[in-house]
Amino acid sequence: MRRAIVLAACAAVTAALAAPAQAGPSSNTTQGRTSEYVVLYKDGVSLAKAHSAVAAAGGTIVKENPAIGLATVRSANTAFLTDAREQSAVDGVARNRAVGEAPKVQRAAAAKAQAVEKEGRSGTRTAGASHSSSAEPLADRQWDMKLIHATTGGSYKKEPGDHRVLVGVIDTGIDGTHPDIAPNFDRALSRNFTTDIPVDADGTEVDGPCEHPSCVDPVDEDDNEHGTHVASTIASPLNGLGIAGVAPNVTLVNVRAGQDSGYFFLQPVVDALTYSADHGIDVVNMSFYTDPWLFNCVNNPADSPEYQAEQRTVIQASERALAYAHRHGVTLVSAAGNGATDYTKTIIDASSPDYVATPGEAPYQRTIPPSCVSEPSEGKNVLAISALGISTRKSYYSDYGNGYVAVSAPGGDSYDTPDGKADVTKAILAAYPKSLAEQRGELNPDGTPNVPYVVRSCKGSTCGYYQYLQGTSMASPHATGVVALIVSKYGRPDRVHGGLTLSPDRVKSILEGTATEHACPTPRAYTYTRYVLQSDGTYQKVTATHTCEGGKGRNGFYGHGIIDALGAVSH
Q1: If the chain, 571 residues long, is cut into consecutive pieces of 10 residues, what is the mean pLDDT of each piece?
Q2: Among 124, 277, 349, 425, which is least packed, fewest CB within 10 Å?
């Protein structure tokens, strides 16, 4: 049971610093193998005192974010957690483990079908220039854009976006070389805050062997696919190739915090947020699951004191970074999650912790009350987006909750069909790195796709690849795109960073105020019936019932309503 989350904007570049060596760990501690930790300084404490505290506990700072007061620390002191927490300059300490994960992609299962290839129209695209009003070659497959009126006859005509508006994608990376992303991709402003991790504490593969000597991927590379799909949904241009995103004229910035494997660690997430805030990024999309704790609880009796302290640190550091970003004008958008659960109710979680930070760690069962927090989707000032299928029903996998969901958006639902059997075209189509399609054997020798979920579009000798995926990770970038249109339409000149800016609170008001209200289904307890294809060719019937609470103006399935790109720029 996991939740997808969309990261939104932030501030201050990470500084790699060496800790002072004037102090050491207490004499009653022992030295073991070197481990990594994250240390959260007391709010307002001087860096000098914080550095002394880390050194006194036997730690060496590897990376530091002064804006938030968070550092990644290495130590061979086996009592580092205890020694560091005793320091008056320290607010929290945790083992350095993944705090999030990009959802495993949900390629809509379907009966074998012939892959589709379409030839594009001629035309050119210059960054910042006005786009053609003609539909893109694959526009007929973009039911999602039609649903929110992001079309040539809708929002594209009235406001296609302004290239001065910066959209940060906090994800697994962006394939900036993809021909349907490159025209809007800002490589110079993009950053990668991650370093590849070959294996975890048990020796199990995480990212696998490093592709580059530094173990740091270039800012225009995505070895996962997730971030590229998200970026394309937001801002693929109107260039006569493939698809168009919600805001086809805005600028994409890769603010990478996710590993190749999809894991997100606390320091890169915080660094991505603060960097975004400090560099004038207007909105950030956060489409990743909260891990290793699906929910962070400060005093769950099922957790050890160490685990409780760890989760408190994650909450405190995340909230500081989110507040910093919001304060600096970044609108924060997050996926609601794919756990098919009501966030406002007590549930059972048997999946945490799901990342091995020390040898032998394993998930265990916990009762999770609503007081526990899923970061960043439940963070303060974060807009959580639920997912819809083609019929506008809430997607069968989407998390929900009255007061939790801000608005809803197309995320795909392959089972939203008359017979309840999967149809791949009911998912969301967006850009796919060609390198991954080749590695996975999804292309024929002539370059045409050989699987039903991959599509190719060509304009002359230039071809782009696209794939169908579904999830709240696909819903949140639709909302992020509408936010970018809102800033394009109503923003004012940003005297600090250049470009445009608009208060996140004003953006929220317009986004929610122009959404199309949608009442709960009748009956409110809606039963999903799916017929899932088995390996032997038979179908298994699967049912689940989700209950929608609230009125037409705001409820647990749709929040304030379904986003409307045209309505938002006609406000």
Answers
A1: 33 33 42 85 96 98 96 96 97 86 59 38 32 78 98 97 98 97 98 90 86 92 95 98 98 94 90 98 88 86 94 95 98 96 94 84 94 94 98 98 98 98 98 97 97 97 98 98 98 95 98 98 98 96 98 98 98 78
A2: 124
Question: Can you tell me the distance from the alpha carbon of 172 to that of 256, in angstroms, rounded to the nearest whole number?
Answer: 6
Q: Does residue 258 contact residue 288 with C-beta atoms inside 8 Å? A: yes
Query: Which residue in 236, 473, 476, 488 is the catalytic one?
Result: 473
Helices assigned H by DSSP within 135-208: 143-147, 155-158
Please identify which of the residues 91, 171, 220, 282 carries the catalytic annotation: 171
The C-alpha atoms of residue 244 and residue 249 are separated, in whole angstroms, by 10
- The single-letter code of the amino acid at 90 is V
Query: What gap in Å lies between CA 266 and CA 322, rounded to an integer?
Result: 12
DSSP assignment of 513-528: HTSB--PPPSSSEEEE
- The verdict on whether 318 is a catalytic residue reads no
Cβ atoms of 249 and 467 within 8 Å: the answer is no
Q: Is 220 a catalytic residue?
A: no
pLDDT at position 357 is 81
Domains, in order of start, for the chain? 31-98 (3.30.70.80), 116-569 (3.40.50.200)
Q: Choose, from 149, 178, 226, 518, the residue flagged as catalytic.
A: 226
564 is catalytic: no
Residue type, 351: S
